[in-house]
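Notes from hallway chat w/ T.B., transcribed later so I don't forget. T.B. wanted the structure written out for a chain they're using in a teaching module, and asked if we could keep both sequence and structure tokens in one place. Agreed to drop them here.
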Amino acid sequence: MKILITILIWYYCNLLEEYYNNRLLKVKQYEFNTSDSTNNSIKVYPKGEIVEKYINEDGEEQLVDDITTKEILGTQYRKSNLKIDGYELVEISNDGNYLYEEETQTVYYRYRKINNSILKNPKTLLKYSIFIELLVIIVTAYIIFALKLKKNKKIMKNY
């Protein structure tokens, strides 16, 4: 008899656990607002989900991990401004005009690989030109210093 009672209790506990886990899964999709001072009730706002996918221009390679955002249904989606080194943004699917809905939506960000040639990228060219100018100044200063030192050594030998 004890074994039967133990089995029934175990079964009942599993049923309860499954029931509450299912309810918790449903609750996670909502946002609660308890700050309403005029009414003691809890307002529930259902949430939608948008997945951001960052892919190369051909759609063959995923550049970074997917990013999932959740907001209250009907909220306007805000475009991401994620910068990926070595790539430039080419296109956003549907121009990024999305509203959060009950079903999960996917926004595709397509990127093109940037050719890292110094001559094709003005910012890189400017950065390197400043570096080259600084290097020329340092080398020139070293040569002038070396020549003066050599001249001073000749003068010192003559004495």
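Follow-up for T.B.: The longest strand covers residues 43-56. Might be a good example for the class.
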